[in-house]
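for the recovery benchmark. C-alpha cells below, seq after
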C-alpha cells in the first residue's frame, strides 16, 4: 500500500492521490493500488517558519510519527507532497526518528525523484525552480541539482520575493486563497517563468506543491513546466508495483 503524508498544504495531499490514480494502469476500481492519505496539518509545525528560525519545533518529528502510523496501517512506501519538508534539517530528522524506531518503510525523497526524472528525460537542460524563501535559502534544489549535474538557474532577490509572495501573501497568496486561485498570484508566477526563461532556463520546476493549483498548463512561453507532485506520484506507483505505472506520453 502507498502511504501519503498530507496536510502540507492540505490540497497538495489530495492532488497527489488524484495523480496516483491518473498515472495508474487500471481497468476498473479494483485494479487501482491501495492508497492511504493521512492529512493532519494540525500536528505538523510550519516548515518555512522552522527553517527561518521562527518556529522552535522541528516538523520532522511529527512527520515521522505519522509515517510510523501509516506503516502500522500497512503502507510499504511513503511519499510526502511538500518540497520544503524535504530540506535536510527536516528530512534528516524524519529519517533519524524512523531509524531509531526500527521502521522498515521506504520513504521517497521528492526532490531526488525530480532530479532523477530530469536526468532521464531532459539531461543537460538548464532548470529554473519556483520555490518558497525557506526552500531557496536552504539550497534544497540547488544542492541536489548540483550533485546530479543539472544546470540550475538561480532567482535574484527581487524575483524570489515575488514568487514567495504569490505563495504566502495573506491577501492573494496560494496558501491563503487557493479555491479559486487569485489572478494576481497566477500572473506573478507566470511572469516569473518568463523572467527565468530570459535568464536561460529551458525547464521550470514548480518547487512548491501549491503552485500546480495556479499553473495548470504544461508549458508557458514555450518552456515546459514540471510538476513534482506528478513525478512523485509516478515514483510511488513504480516502487509499489511497476506493472501499474502508465507509459508516459510526452
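predicted aa per position
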Amino acid at each position: 500500500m502507498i502511504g501519503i503524508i498530507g496536510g502540507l498544504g492540505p490540497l497538495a495531499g489530495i492532488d497527489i492521490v488524484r495523480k496516483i490514480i491518473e498515472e495508474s494502469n487500471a481497468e476498473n476500481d479494483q485494479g487501482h493500488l491501495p492508497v492511504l492519505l493521512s492529512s493532519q496539518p494540525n500536528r505538523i509545525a510550519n516548515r518555512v517558519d522552522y527553517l527561518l528560525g521562527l518556529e522552535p519545533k522541528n516538523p520532522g518529528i511529527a512527520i515521522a510519527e505519522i509515517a510510523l502510523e501509516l506503516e502500522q496501517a500497512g503502507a510499504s512506501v511513503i511519499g510526502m507532497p511538500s518540497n520544503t519538508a524535504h530540506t535536510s534539517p527536516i528530512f534528516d530528522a524524519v529519517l533519524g526518528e524512523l531509524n531509531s524506531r526500527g521502521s522498515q518503510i521506504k520513504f521517497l525523497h521528492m526532490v531526488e525523484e525530480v532530479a532523477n526524472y530530469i536526468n532521464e528525460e531532459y539531461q543537460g537542460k538548464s532548470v529554473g525552480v519556483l520555490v518558497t524563501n525557506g526552500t531557496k535559502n536552504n539550497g534544497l534544489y540547488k544542492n541536489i541539482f548540483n550533485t546530479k549535474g543539472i544546470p540550475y538557474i538561480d532567482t535574484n532577490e527581487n524575483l524570489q520575493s515575488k514568487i514567495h509572495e504569490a505563495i504566502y501573501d495573506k491577501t492573494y497568496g496560494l496558501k491563503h486563497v487557493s479555491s479559486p486561485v487569485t489572478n494576481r498570484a497566477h500572473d506573478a508566477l507566470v511572469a516569473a517563468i518568463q523572467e527565468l526563461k530570459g535568464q536561460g532556463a529551458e525547464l521550470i520546476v514548480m518547487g512548491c506543491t501549491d503552485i500546480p493549483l495556479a499553473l495548470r498548463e504544461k508549458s508557458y512561453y514555450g518552456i515546459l513546466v514540471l510538476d513534482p507532485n506528478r513525478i512523485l506520484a509516478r515514483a510511488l506507483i513504480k516502487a509499489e508495483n511497476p506493472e501499474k505505472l502508465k507509459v508516459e506520453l510526452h
